[in-house]
Amino acid sequence: MTVFSRNAALSSLFSLHKQRLALEEGLAPEAIAAAIEDGSMVLLGNPAHPHVQPIVVGQPSRVKVNANIGTSPLNHCLQTELQKIDTAVQAGADTVMDLSIAGNLEAIRTGMLARCSAPLGTVPMYAVGQVYLDAQRDIAEMDPELLFQEIARQAEQGVDFVTVHCGLTQRGVEWAMDGSRLMGIVSRGGALLARWMRHNGKENPLLTDFDRIVDIALRHNVTLSLGDGLRPGAGCDAGDAAQFEEVLTHGRLARHALSRGVQCMIEGPGHVRLHEVASQIQTIKRLTNNAPLYVLGPLVTDTAPGYDHIAGAIGGAAAVQAGADFLCYLTPAEHLTLPDVHDVRAGVLASRIAAQAGETALGRPQAIARENAISKARVALDWEGMSQLAYDPEMVRARREPHKHEEACAMCGKFCAVKMMQP
Fold it and tell me: What are the pLDDT digits (tens) for 276-313?
């Protein structure tokens, strides 16, 4: 049996959208289907998500960019988050993730689903954590049944992909907390589960009952994003035993889920020094059967608060060149505060530029064509053409506005090298 024959929702979705996807990606429908079958590509789209425009993630499709939004205990306004969705999509984000941890999470999530035509992801653990933490109760008291119920509820509501920290093991948690790491565990979802596991002396329920999650995902074509609860939170922690204990478990789980007809992505590292990015990406891809790899940055330096979108874009470009499929943006607010709409826009554009740089280095036809087209516009002094091909047309036009009637730019004027070499 094939993945499509096991997953009726996926099969129906692909039939409806395969021609559009093929045109957008420059791939034959058969190539996309084959990649979905072998697990190297996923089709994000829950039929219950109103007006969703499904996309594919994974090789050999275009590298995608995700924008994280969501509330915090200090700011939980739904309208603000809806504005962030609009900003992210307008800036070119392919997906959006709701990381809300405060306010009426049910209303926030359903409001986002109604507003967002891009695939929407969530972290169900946050909703369960809110129940306990808002009641001033220890998450170690959590009833795991609530977590499975929350995953099912969100799938029924239309969420397209969920981060589930199924690869977190007791052994991995202890290795991360044995003092060998500078930062220990930095994942919010990972820390919540790890606290429960250590207090109760039990294995991760998302791992021991993984098939329950698979059953839920299969009914709704929810893609499982296997969360990196043990990702390095400092560059010096990258590549340790705890991180790769989780990666190895992810590979095994992704293979099992695919055999049941359920799609999986692998969430990758956060803080990785530049010279280690390629080896990290290549190793993770190999250990997880070439499943789509979804990376946060990665951040190549820990010293850029306020500019982490730049540090993440440097790492993202290197990661794409090494084989990453999906970039989760970082914004200037990372590590400091909740991003506002301006941060969201800056983060999306930084990651899109990183994806373009990485794909150009790989020689991918669409990326090369865009590079060559903007160069042709430059040599022709075609400012509108340059604007249309730039990742931020508004920025180009705004910078040109004071001298938009001049043929050359304000940097060179009559010293313009392009004009000087014209016949």
Answer: 999 999 999 999 999 999 999 999 999 999 999 999 99
Give the per-residue pLDDT at 371: 98
How many independent structural domains does the chain possess?
A: 2
d(CA 321, CA 361): 6
Q: Beta partners for 72?
A: 75
Residues whose CB is less than 8 angstroms from the CB of residue 346 and which lie 6 or more positions away in sequence, other chains included? 309, 331, 332
Residue type, 356: Q
Rounded Cα–Cα distance for residues 175 and 180 (Å): 8
Domain boundary among 363, 388, 403: 363
Angle at 240 between CA 239 and CA 244, to 5 degrees: 80
With a cut of 80, say whether residue 1 has pLDDT above it.
no
Tell which of 336, 363, 390 closes a domain.
Answer: 363
Q: Are residues 356 and 400 in the same domain?
A: no
Instruction: Report the SS3 class of residue 245.
Output: helix
Q: Do 177 and 291 share a structural domain?
A: yes
Distance CA 109, CA 106 (A): 5
Give the per-residue pLDDT at 2.
Answer: 82
For 249-260, what is each residue's pLDDT tens digit?
999 999 999 999
Per-residue pLDDT, averaged over 90-102, amounts to 98
CB atoms within 10 A of CB 50: 12
Residue 355 pLDDT greater than 80, yes or no: yes
